[in-house]
Write a structure and sequence with these properties.
about 475 residues; alpha/beta; five-stranded parallel β-sheet; 12 strands; elongated
Length: about 475
């Protein structure tokens, strides 16, 4: 032991030195391996950060197979997330646009409804004023022996007629125009249509008309039908700025063409097709063609009400309108109208002079919330021989008068009146309680009555038409009583 104190054998030194070298090599190797691992981990962290930011991540090589697989999967996931994000953004943008369009349509619909109410109210009040003027002028005319008065009174009556036509236009815009449907044979009624359209379209556009033999008659308002065809022709003219051909064809509709129409299986329909060879319309434009105020024309060149009038006319008649258009080839607008097969419409002969109508001895109840119009109407009836004319401002007052004076011969009532019952409700109640008491309705609005249910006069009504309607209703009632 004393021999080896302070002395390390050579072998031990070698072992220790070797161990130190191996340890150094191990530490260096571990450092190198850790560096190779840290870089891929850092790469994966960068990929995750770019994924969180919504960026597209390329699938890079890290040098470690397992890490390369993870990076590839993350890159695929990032690309998928990016696609989903873009799709979601597109859907959100479409939803926002649809919401904006829906809000615009609602706002437009509310404006149209408000415009309709305003227009209808103005037309209603104006009709009452025209009725007062017309009846007053008629009374003056009956007692005016001075030649100086005849010309002004005649001019006043002509002004009333012109004002009445204006109110009909206002009511048409408001959708409250009272219709005057009649049985129309298209082969004879449309015979003058080409000449009428030529004057509106000019000579650069050829107009042809063909009504197929055996085409059923239709029950429509003739003025609305003519206006619808003129509106279609004017739209076709704008689509054929360089000239072209406009074809109007009428025939009985086939079964497959009436799909979706009311009672299509049990009713017959007539199809009127208006075809042009103009520029046509894209599908997204054609689907909005019948919307009010929708137009593709420049500002100030169109109102967007032409085709909406066409659809409104067809809908009121019990049918519909459809459009088929191909860009570059032309457009066809089809009017589907119920056929008047086996029906007949009673009309009032308005040509008979008022002086020929005899109301002598009759007792009449006039129901109207407009005091001036009721007063002048009562004076008109009394001037033509009515024994007694009483006035009521609403249905409740009318029922009270009928309860205490049950000997009235006829009731003349306005349709639009305040209270629980309007004029139509009053007429139906009287029909059930007093079936022998005739009722004549008068209104500036369209009324929801079935054909033949009551006589309905359009306000303002010419005095001769009013007197003739009352006289005919009295005669019909007396004949039925016998």
């Amino acid at each position: 032991q004393s021999q080896f104190d302070g002395y390390v054998p050579h072998a031990a030194v070698q072992v220790v030195t070797g161990a130190a070298l191996l340890l150094a090599l191990a530490v260096g190797g571990a450092f190198l391996v850790s560096r190779r691992i840290v870089a891929p981990v850092q790469s994966l962290r960068d990929i995750a950060a770019r994924m969180r930011a919504g960026e597209v991540v390329p699938a890079g090589r890290t040098g470690i197979v397992e890490f390369d697989d993870v990076a590839t999967v993350l890159a695929q996931a990032a690309n998928a997330l990016q696609d989903h994000r873009q799709e979601l953004e597109r859907q959100v943008a479409e939803a926002v646009e649809r919401t904006r369009q829906a809000e615009q349509r609602v706002s437009q619909s509310q404006r149209i409804e408000a415009l309709g109410r305003l227009t209808g109210g103005v037309a209603h009040d104006f009709n009452n004023l025209l009725g007062v003027i017309s009846n007053s002028a008629h009374l003056i005319q009956r007692h005016a022996d001075s030649p100086e008065l005849k010309a002004p009174v005649a001019a006043t009556l002509r002004a009333v007629d012109a004002g009445s036509r204006l109110t009909q236009h206002l009511l048409r815009v408001a959708g409250r125009r009272p219709l005057s449907p009649e049985r129309v044979h298209l082969d004879s009624h449309l015979s003058d249509l080409p000449d009428l359209l030529h004057s509106a379209l000019g000579r650069r556009i050829e107009v042809s008309l063909r009504v197929a033999p055996g085409t059923w008659p239709v029950c429509v308002d003739t003025s609305e039908l003519e206006l619808a065809l003129i509106n279609l022709a004017l739209n076709a003219r704008d689509a054929m700025s360089a000239g072209g051909e406009l074809q109007v064809q009428a025939r009985n509709a086939e079964d497959h063409e009436t799909t979706g129409l009311p009672d299509a299986s049990s009713r017959h329909y007539v199809l009127i097709a208006v075809t042009d060879n103009g520029v046509g319309m894209e599908a997204d434009v054609a689907q909005h063609a019948f919307e009010p105020f929708f137009t593709t024309k420049a500002l100030g060149k169109g109102t967007g009400l032409g085709l909406s009038q066409v659809m409104g006319f067809c809908t009121q008649a019990g049918g519909t309108a459809r459009v088929d258009s191909t860009p570059g080839l032309g457009t066809t607008v089809s009017l589907l109208l119920p056929a008047a097969v086996g029906t007949a419409l009673a009309t009032i002969d308005s040509t008979t002079a008022a002086a020929d109508v005899d109301l002598i001895g009759t007792r009449i109840l006039v129901v109207d919330d407009n005091h001036e119009l009721a007063r002048v109407t009562a004076a008109l009836l009394q001037s033509h021989g009515a024994q007694q004319v009483e006035r009521a401002q609403n249905a409740a007052e009318a029922l009270f008068l009928l309860a205490i004076q049950p000997d009235f011969d006829i009731v003349l009532t306005d349709v639009m009146m305040p209270g629980e019952l309007d004029g139509l409700g009053l007429a139906r109640r009287l029909r059930s309680e007093r079936p022998n008491l005739p009722v004549v309705l008068i209104s500036g609005y369209k009324a929801d009555i079935t054909p033949g249910e009551f006589v309905l006069l359009a306000k303002p009504t010419a005095p001769n038409e009013l007197l003739r309607a009352l006289h005919d209703a009295l005669m019909s009632s007396r004949l039925a009583a016998q």
